[in-house]
Design brief:
Layout: H1 14-35, H2 49-64, H3 68-82, H4 87-100, H5 104-120, H6 125-137, H7 141-154, H8 159-171, H9 175-188, H10 193-207, H11 218-235, H12 240-256, E1 267-269, E2 275-277, H13 281-302, H14 312-330
Antiparallel strand pairs: 1-2
Helix pairs in contact: 1-2, 2-3, 3-4, 4-6, 5-6, 6-7, 7-8, 8-9, 9-10, 10-11, 10-12, 11-12, 12-13, 12-14, 13-14
């Protein structure tokens, strides 16, 4: 298993973040002592980018565990090395200020600082992203959407921004806009299996939304959702969310297609402009059985694994889905 210092801090479990936070004082002391020696060219330890990446990861872990003092020390190290006007450092400084803010008024002050920075440098991407994140945390969703759209006008290949915009649209029940944003992500990263699965989830939700039923035929949307989940597990065999979604969509299709007055050969237009037929019931049954088998196998293998804490909610959700399916078959 890779060291937590080598992975993104956002992927750390709570226990991993706490462990890194506890290591921070010793880490700071170690490198402060080393740097206190007289520096001799070609003899001193060479500076590495991993050192500064580690400071950044430790800072984020400390903020997650409310060790603000150590987080500030890491931030000061980065400021001393790269300067207070470095764009990435400015973004990290804003993150620190948001974390230590005690109330909404303090967050509004941070927002005003972001506005002042962007007035001087409109293309400061780290600060722009921090501002959008802050707007969302302040429940100013419309402002966050407007800011993201403006950002994507300037940087249309930023897949993180497209994914964030999709999430914001979804929170407002704007399913077609949310799906469009993920389609833009797939234009840049066509093999991103998690995005295919996420798009499948949005389509699945929209198929069951009564307000969306006038725009799309539910069985058509479910069929496209099923295709997205199939693509996700094709790209990443053993992907739990992909098989979970495949199980959900095939369950729904098995319920609605026999009751539908439309022929089973109704076509569906995917985002790749390919006409896809709603598969026969026999095919849907086989996919459903495959999803059930794989979910059972994946949940059994993941229990007791190192990733159990991080994946606990997904494993429990998969188990509950399998239990419900078993109960329905027994009735």
């Amino acid at each position: 298993m890779s060291s937590p210092l080598l992975t993104s801090p956002l992927r750390h479990s709570h226990s991993e973040a706490l462990d890194l936070s506890r290591q921070t004082p010793d880490y700071l002391h170690k490198y402060t002592t080393r740097n206190a020696r007289i520096s001799i060219p070609w003899v001193s330890d060479p500076e590495s980018s991993e050192l500064w990446a580690t400071y950044e990861k430790l800072m984020v872990s400390c903020l997650r565990t409310e060790d603000d003092k150590s987080a500030l020390q890491c931030l000061e190290k980065l400021i001393d090395r790269f300067g207070a006007t470095n764009e990435r450092v400015m973004g990290l400084r804003g993150l620190y200020q948001e974390a230590v803010a005690t109330d909404a008024s303090a967050l509004e002050k941070v927002l005003l600082e972001y506005d002042a920075v962007l007035a001087e440098d409109p293309v400061n991407t780290p600060v722009m992203k921090r501002r959008i994140a802050l707007l969302r945390s302040l429940a100013r969703t419309t402002d966050a959407i407007v800011a993201l759209v403006a950002m994507l006008d300037a940087s249309p290949t930023d897949i993180e921004a497209w994914a964030e915009l999709s999430d914001l649209y979804l929170s407002q029940g704007m399913f077609s806009q949310a799906a469009f944003c993920l389609e833009e992500v797939l234009l840049v990263a066509p093999n991103a299996w998690n995005i295919h699965a996420r798009l499948g989830e949005i389509l699945y939700i929209s198929a069951g939304n009564s307000a969306n039923s006038n725009e799309n035929n539910p069985d058509k949307v479910l069929a496209e959702s099923m295709c997205r989940f199939c693509r996700s597990i094709e790209l990443c065999d053993g992907y739990l969310r992909g098989y979970y979604g495949l199980k959900m969509t095939t369950d729904r299709l098995l319920e609605c297609i026999p009751k539908s007055s439309r022929p089973a050969s109704t076509s569906v237009t995917t985002v790749d402009s390919v006409e896809v037929q709603i598969p026969p019931l026999a095919t849907i049954h086989k996919l459903n059985e495959r999803a059930t088998l794989m979910l059972s196998d994946i949940t059994r293998r993941k229990v007791g694994a190192d990733s159990i804490e991080r994946d606990y909610s997904e494993i429990m959700a998969a188990r509950q889905l399998l239990d419900r399916s078993t109960q329905i078959r027994q009735r």
